[in-house]
Amino acid sequence: MKRIIVALTLACMLTVSSSCKKGFLDQVPDDRLTLDETFKNRNTAEKFLANVYSAIPDEASQRFPGSDNSIGEWTGGSDEAEYDWGFVATQNINNGNYDASSGFISGFWTTYYRGIRSAGIFMDNVDKVSDMPASLKTQYKAEARALRAIYYFWLMRIYGPVVITGDKTIAPDASFADVQLPRSSFDECVTYVTTELDAAIADLPLKAANNNNLGRINKAFATAVKSQVLLYAASPLFNGNTDYAGMVNADGKKLINQTYDATKWQKAADAAKAFLDQFVPGTFDLYRENDASGNFSPYLSCRDVMLVDWNKEIIYARIDAGVTNRQYETTPYHSGYADEVRGSGGLGATQTMVDAYFMANGRSITDNGSGYVATGFSNFQAPYDDQARSTYNQWTNREPRFYVGITYNGSKWLNTNSGEVITQTYNTGNSGKQTGGNDYSPTGYIVRKNEPIGDWRTGGRSWVMLRLAEIYLNYAEALNEASPGNADILKYVNLIRNRAGIPEYGSPSLPAPAGQAAVREAIRKERRVELAFENTRFFDTRRWKIAETTDNGPFKALNISTNPPEFYNVVTFENRVFEKRNYFYPIPQNDVDSDKQLVQNTGW
Questions:
Q1: For 15-24, how does the pLDDT look when each residue is reduced to its tens digit (9 = 90+)?
Q2: Which DSSP string do the residues of 192-228 spell out, in sequence order?
Q3: How far is CA 502 from the centre of its chain?
Q4: Which residues pair with 248 in a beta bridge?
Q5: Distance CA 481, CA 230 (A)
Q6: Using CB atoms within 10 A of its CB, is residue 310 exposed (0-12), middle (13-18) or buried (19+)?
């Protein structure tokens, strides 16, 4: 079978048509092939499996989430960033203007359940294929089983407890009205997903055997996802959360457990450690890169881990993603310059995110020993620049990941093929609000992470969905809750900091945080910076139950409607709304109306 993405572009079978209803079981078009025709030969069966894969989201295209895809609102819908354009669904997330009937709310529910159902159909029928080797049937069934479990997990992150349809596959021609199923409890969902992943792992290959199989589900990715599921299960949103005491099925079953279980953290830690013991360093390791002089470069390492396709840190990536969509958003407007350096700059980093990065000495800007200077200018040479430039002091002497992640006013642009470009994000600057019209940064900062150094219009690369650094931080977090003081906790955090080129905790220049609470805060800070703009922060603030603080109230930015010096004043650009009910999206209203056993999430 060719690379899975090739098949994704082919005609899909047993998928939703434009005339179908959008319930999670209403997916059969009038012109579909029959099951017998589909599973008559290897070619059409493999196309069907490719269609099961098609529910994997293209998170590089977050400007375009909708009712017919699983693309998320995770970057602009978190406290990391803000989109310029009003049509992007993140605007509704941030102002609380959505409900159970909103189109983007149903997109995930419909698309993932479509994938779940198709995975079951494939598993039930692939043995009928006459020209497929038995070993390949076993592998493909494991891929479908793992995909089904992963789609359930991705639903659980968004909606909480979901409907587990189990191994009894719903018939393709069944209407939604014929199926009445209740939601399983979150703990039941976790047990089902982890059990299914274990069953799939037994028959999956270790990882892609060659470039023709990149993007296929393998043992390593399924094992990593299992550890993620258990981390979520242990987290405050799902572990003894009494805010959901009233969310019960008709038979009285509580959907969120009401008693905190500390052993869940140990299970999460054990699962993460099992991944590390099996796959590190033999299969995966932190990506490290040297500069032109042969010296280790934290800046290049942290930048290129996202850009070098399938490097040794990448556990899973979305093949052939729409990266030019994101690159357009992260390339500034650059009025008057060549098209290859002229984008929109419409994805702006918030001041909160800018402030989250450490200083070069590894300390937060709020630390008295950080050396952070809030005003004035200094001559400073950024790690990607060839000379020192007058730079606002807030942006000088920051850690390498800051310069990977943020484009700020007066910074040199990455692509110099057509000459040097200095980005100006103030009002009348080459990338400012007045200059760009509809294309400008709404915060005065532009997200830079994942931006290549060449022409932004060049695509053809993968989008990183999971890398080893996240597993390191998952393990440290779970272990700190299960076994405070364990030496592995700071060991794995320090591995991340070492690669980032900042002092390790417990080194001569930086004392280790003292006590479980302080270590927890250090881990969360590290996670926020290391995984910035990688679609984790949206879910982290929710599973930690802190989004009512982090995602609510006034959000700050530079004064983009002015020129310097007023431009450098920090002002409120938006008052965001996050209430208790927003921890979960509502279940789509049409499905709640159709399935009388399907209870709605609390507050909706």
A1: 322 223 333 3
A2: HHHHHHHHHHTTS-SS-SSGGGTTS--HHHHHHHHHH
A3: 25
A4: 254
A5: 13
A6: middle
